[in-house]
Design goal:
With 289 residues, this protein is mostly helical. The chain is built from 12 helices and no strands. The longest helix is centred in the middle third of the chain and has 25 residues, at 123-147. It is a multi-pass membrane protein.
Length: 289
């Protein structure tokens, strides 16, 4: 086992732990505050679809002999750079995204949260989700049509199962590029980051850096940088998360440090004022009279 292989494995598992851990702070903060105020439903909504697509594409690249053979035909006989930690991360992320999304869609019925604004995804995010699903289905139709042809299928140039995997991957790529934008806008409008967990941002930033480092190490070991272009989802995940995380950290520590907007109660403050005892109110009225 060479040093670069060991270093790549360490980066892979550490980034998996960081990214996996980053899903807990927001869900726990929502439970602690018994509210999702200060955050937008668009992020957890689109996250579910994104990680479902990421899980499907990663699992296919790692476990499907057909997809791996088609990948090798297009990339000089090399194997995909997807590893087991990528699949485990995607599976864990999907489960946690479903749990977090339920805190918005079933806030009162399941979690007994206080009412909060914004319980429906925006039209823009619904449009993104619909477009991603239609694109994957269209690619599947093209691959199925090519497979039914009487001509021999050349995966290096013809539509095939690998293209469906790539379509799912690019759907995740698009979702990654847009999913943080609504929260950035919400923070800017409220001039506050209260309700949005900064802990998840820090963990996400570290995970993004290590993810890119692992991808670079794997491609360097193979002496072929097509491993980077051949895994665009992982590349986009690292870059996009680091970019948005930087924006969130500027908002939290520079633009709106420890500021609780009137619309979003502070995390440490109770969301609703505790009711006073009836006897205390009666005594107060007697003293005033």
């Amino acid at each position: 086992m060479d040093f670069l292989f060991l270093l790549s494995a360490i980066c892979g598992w550490v980034y998996t732990l960081c990214w996996s851990a980053s899903f807990y702070p927001q869900a726990l903060l929502n439970v602690r505050r018994r509210s999702t105020s200060g955050t937008t439903i668009d992020y957890p909504f689109i996250n579910v679809l994104g990680f479902a697509a990421y899980l499907a594409s990663s699992a296919a690249l790692l476990y499907s002999p057909t997809v791996r053979a088609q990948y090798a035909a297009r990339h000089h006989g090399l194997a995909p750079t997807v590893q087991l930690n990528d699949v485990l991360f995607a599976l864990h992320a999907l489960v946690l995204s479903l749990i977090t999304a339920s805190q918005y869609f079933c806030a009162q019925s399941l979690w007994n949260f206080y009412p909060a604004p914004g319980t429906r995804p925006s039209r823009a995010m619904v449009g993104v989700a619909t477009g991603c699903v239609l694109a994957v289905l269209a690619t599947y139709a093209l691959a199925a049509h090519a497979a039914s042809s009487s001509y021999p299928l050349d995966p290096a140039s013809a539509w095939c199962e690998l293209d469906v995997v790539y379509a799912a991957g690019y759907a995740k790529l698009l979702i990654t590029l847009v999913k943080y934008t609504p929260q950035v806008v919400v923070n800017a409008r409220a001039r506050s980051t209260v309700g949005w967990s900064i802990s998840q941002v820090v963990l996400d930033l570290v995970g993004g850096f290590l993810s890119l480092l692992q991808l670079a190490l794997d491609s360097y070991r193979q002496h072929d940088w097509s491993g980077v272009s051949g895994n665009p989802v992982k590349l986009a995940l690292g870059n996009a998360s680091m970019l948005y995380d930087s924006v969130f950290m500027v908002q939290h520590y520079v633009l709106y440090p420890h500021r609780a907007d009137a619309h979003w109660p502070d995390v440490e403050a109770p969301l609703l004022e505790a009711p006073r005892a009836p006897d205390a109110d009666l005594g107060r009225r007697r003293r005033l009279s």
